[in-house]
Design a protein that fits this description.
Helix content is 65%, strand content 7%. It has 342 residues and is mainly alpha-helical. A hairpin with a 3-residue loop joins strand 2 and strand 3. The protein is elongated, with a radius of gyration of 25 Å.
Length: 342
């Protein structure tokens, strides 16, 4: 993760623009701008800013006792587990610190991510569920009816689905189902998982707002899963153990679902894990178009206002999610293919 953090810092440290001016807006003046730069360490060389950033991310960090130093504990909102004080510096064991948002003053990046990431997970898992459920079903059906009209039709649709950009399909689906056919679907063009009650009774969940963004986000992985399932099943049906099962007189349904399908799912699991990880990052456009209050929408907002800590924290969080999903995928392989235990 140190490599990812270094890459993220290098990418965003060369962005044009002055974050201090963006933070001050119309109140911009030289004195306040210098104060902001000192508070957030912008007045330091890039090399020092990089070391400060790694020090904040590290669970074990070192901090000067000089109150005018940027690394002083008083300048940050650390969640400290343990600390040890020395003559000139303090050593902290803490939760990795993603710093404060430039735009939402006083709000930590961790808080913003904690509030929005669950919504992105809900959207990504719903989209992946649609993709797997329909993709595997249609892939099996297409393989069983190989070379027939329905097989050719589904293959053509899957190619179209893989080529269709998410931002374009999001606009079309939102317009058709949320505006043109709204009286029949009852769906809205925009909306998030939680909405505020007009009568002051707090927030409530609106599950129907999940349908259109999840469908949009799931179109491309659905097409990929369908093609992978079809091709993998056709390859598996030509294996020796399938011919042995046929020779034993097993029914076609049992051969397909008990013997062929489980052995054909390895490439599907690989694709599903990759798509699920990419969905967390690729949901940016979908969330923005549908007004879904997830991490992707926050990234767009942060980029517009040069809220660098939020963007960097979001990218790091998505990178960690990708690593975790990859590890879980390797574990799932052992249950799908017992031969890997040997």
């Amino acid at each position: 993760m140190c490599g990812v953090a270094s890459l993220v810092f290098c990418l965003f440290s060369i962005l044009p623009g002055d974050p201090s001016k963006m933070m001050l807006g119309q109140r911009d003046n030289e004195e306040m701008r210098l104060a902001i730069q000192k508070k957030y360490g912008f007045d330091q060389p890039v090399q020092k800013q990089y070391l400060y950033y790694l020090n904040d991310l590290s669970p074990i960090s070192f901090h000067s006792k000089n109150e005018n130093d940027f690394t002083n504990v008083k300048n940050h909102q650390y969640s400290v587990w343990a600390s040890k004080s020395f003559s000139e510096f303090d050593v902290l064991v803490k939760t990795p610190y993603l710093r404060e948002s430039f735009v939402r003053k006083g709000t930590s990046v961790t808080t913003i991510i904690a509030d929005t990431l669950p919504n992105t997970f809900v959207l990504a898992f719903a989209a992946m569920f649609i993709a797997l459920a329909l993709g595997i079903s249609l892939g099996v059906y297409s393989a069983v009816h190989q070379h027939k009209f329905i097989d050719q039709f589904l293959s053509s649709i899957s190619v179209l689905g893989m080529a269709l950009p998410s931002f374009f399909s999001a606009i079309i689906i939102a317009w058709l189902f949320g505006f043109v056919w709204q009286q029949y679907t009852g769906l809205s063009m925009t909306g998030s998982l939680f909405e505020v009650d007009d009568y002051g009774n707090g927030e409530y969940i609106v599950w129907k707002n999940l349908i259109l963004p999840a469908l949009t986000l799931g179109i491309r992985p659905l097409a990929v899963v369908m093609q992978l399932t079809r091709n993998s099943i056709l390859d598996t049906l030509g294996e020796d153990f399938i011919r042995t099962a046929k020779a034993k007189g097993l029914s076609a349904r049992r051969i397909l679902f008990v013997h062929a399908l489980p052995n054909a799912l390895n490439p599907v699991v690989t694709a599903a894990s990759g798509w699920l990880a990419s969905m967390l990052a690729g949901a940016v456009f979908v969330e923005y178009i549908f007004g879904w209050n997830g991490l992707g929408k926050e990234i767009v907002y942060a980029l517009n206002y040069l809220d660098l800590p939020l963007v960097m924290g979001a990218v790091l969080t998505l990178s960690i999610c990708f690593v975790i999903i990859t590890i879980l995928t390797d574990i799932i392989y052992y249950f799908l293919d017992p031969k890997l235990w040997v």
